[in-house]
Amino acid sequence: MKMLDFVVRNAVIADLQATDRNGVIREMVFALANAGALTEADSEAVFRAVAERERQGSTGFGKGVAVPHVKHAKIPRMMAAIGRSAAGIDFAALDRAPVYTVVLLLSPPEKPDEHLQAMESIFRHLQRDNFRRFLKQAETTQAILELIEEADAMPAG
Amino acid sequence: MSSPSTRVEREVTVPNKQGLHARPVLRFVDLASKFDSSIRVCKRDTAVDGKSPMEMMLLEATQGTVLKIVAEGADCEKAVTELSRLVSDGFGEE
Question: Are A94 and B53 inside 8 Å of each other by CB?
């Protein structure tokens, strides 16, 4: 599966305004709503679900990335938002280091396999040092999308 | 003095319904990182660094997957014991 199959282009934020974990999650969930992928009414419930899951256990994988994700009945189809913070966010990450890249993945509960494939695609990209480094430096939505498109085109492994 | 064994391996089956998804991976890596021994986790012919969350995610261990945990170093015995207990307890999940 390619990342661009499920990343919502209008929810790719090159310059996150929020500076704390919940603020960032909220900003990204509402970016998906503004892009028309979620209804405004459902966004609040989805935000609360992601924030709660993150409170139970951080998805800050270290090396400056976090991948908050949730399966929720209010999510009509699988979708992802991407956020970049130049300042870095305290995500209570495994290595305690600030997070610069956040990939938020939302899935409907009835498609766990699709969710797994999407996570696999995200991590295949994120484990590349260059991908993480260039993403951290990408200053525009267009630059982020181009990096993902490039990574999507690379052979797996 | 006699040197203690410096390499221990054990097989464990992933019991929880959700498999080795993000949060169990992070719990595993967090525990693995507390040991000085190197930790490898193998699934069939794939072996990854048990202290690297991203490599661990790519194992895609689902319910029923048999993992082999290999520790090498002075505290390998304790590492394998605690890590395999974490897995067999289903990471505290269902």
Answer: yes
